[in-house]
Amino acid sequence: TAEAQRLKSLPKAEVHLHLEGCFDATVIAQWAKLEGVVLPRPREDLFKFSGLADFLGFLDLACGLASTKERLVELSYGLSQRLADNGTGYADVIFNPTHWHAWQGRLGVMLEAIDAGFKEAEQDGLPTVGLCVSLLRTQSAEAAVELVESLSAMRHPRVVALSVDGNEATAGRTGPRFAEAFRRAGHAGLRRTVHAGESSGPEGVWDAVTLLGADRIDHGVRAIEDASLVEMLANRRIPLGVCPTSNLVLGVYPSIQEHPMERLRQAGVLVSVNTDDPALLGTSLMEEYRLCRQAFGWTDDVTKAMAHTSIEASFANVTVKAHLL
Ligand code: HPA
Ligand code: ZN
Fold it and tell me: What Gene3D superfamilies is this protein classified in (predicted)?
C-alpha cells in the first residue's frame, strides 16, 4: 500500500532490538530437529508466551540451538535483512551472551561470528548495526565487572554499548549492583542502556539514571506513573526505546489504548518506536509505526518527528547519523 511505502522510505533507526528475538519459527524448528531437541509446544503455538518469564525461558532454548559459527552468521545476516525490509537505516542491537549456552566462556569467538554476519550484510549493501552487549538482570556484581573488563580488553569496533535486560520482577530491585560495571563501561568509552520501567515500576527507571548513568532506557514506559520522573526524563532528554507490541504481548498493558507512549510523547519525553523481538513477537518496525499512527492519530509530521528521534537517540557514529538525517 501507499502508506507502507511511505513508512518504509521514512529515514529511521531502531534502538531496542534483540538478536535473541530474531529467530524465525522455521529456523527454530529446523535446528531443533537437527539437534534432536524437543520443542515445548507444537509449532503453531511456539510463540504463544504467557508473560516475560515464559518468554525469557524460550530465549534460552532458541539461542541454545545456535551452536555453530555458521548459525550465528545466518542469524546476524538475517537481522540486517530484516532491517532493510523495513527501511531501517541503522540499528543498535542488544546481544546477551548468557542466553547462548554453546558459547559460554568464549565471548571473543562469539562476537567475531556475529560480527562476520553483520560485515557480510554491510558489504551486500544492507544497513549498519552496532552491538549493545547485555548483562542479565540476575547476574552478580562480579560477573558484571568481568564482562566489562573483557569488553574493554577486546575493544571490538562493533560493540557500542553496555546494556542490562532480563526480568526485574523476579530478580527484585537491582539497586546499585551494576553501578561499578557501568562506571567502568563509561570509562571504556561505551554508551549505556538499561531495560527498566517494564517489569519494574518507575523506581527501576530512577535507578537506571541515577545509579547506572543510563544514556537511554529500554522500555521505560512505566515512568508515566511518576510525574517527577517524566519531567526529569524530558528535561535531561534521556530517550526511551518503546516497544508497543511487546508490551501488549507480554502483558504490561491490556490494550494499545491504555499504552502510555502518546502521553509520554506529549509530556516532552524523547520516545521512539521499536520492535524488541520482532520474530518472536510477530511484528515488524513498519507494523509498529502503523499501529501507533492508528492508535494515537499521529499525522505524517508527527511520524516523521518520531523517526527523526529514533536516529538522534541511536548510538550510531556521527557519519552514519549525518547520512541518515
Ligand atoms: N525485557 C526484558 N528482557 C528482555 C526483553 C524484554 O522486553 N526482550 C529480550 N530480553
Ligand atoms: Zn527488550
Answer: Metal-dependent hydrolases (3.20.20.140)
Q: Which residue has the cell 573483557?
A: 150
110 grid coordinates: 562469539
Q: Which domains, from first to last, does the chain contain?
A: 2-26+81-98+131-315 (3.20.20.140)
Q: Is residue 117 a contact partner of residue 38, using CB atoms and an 8 Å limit?
A: no
Q: Are 230 and 207 in contact (CB under 8 A)?
A: no
Joined grid coordinates for residue 97: 551472551
User: One of 198, 258, 287, 312 is an active-site residue; which one?
Assistant: 198
Q: Which of 14, 55, 136, 252 to mutate to test ligand 1, by most ligand atoms within 8 A of the CB atom?
A: 55
Question: Is a pLDDT exceeding 90 seen at residue 172?
Answer: no
ipTM confidence = 0.93
Question: Which residues on neighbouring strands pair with residue 192, listed in sequence order?
Answer: 162
195 in ligand 1 pocket by Cβ < 6 Å?
yes
Strand 128-136 relative to strand 191-196: parallel, antiparallel, unpaired?
Answer: unpaired
pLDDT tens digit sequence for 276-303: 999 999 999 999 999 999 999 999 999 9
Give the chain's count of helices (H) and strands (E).
16, 8
> Is 198 assigned a catalytic role?
yes
Q: Which of 278, 319, 304 is nearest to 130 (CA)?
A: 319
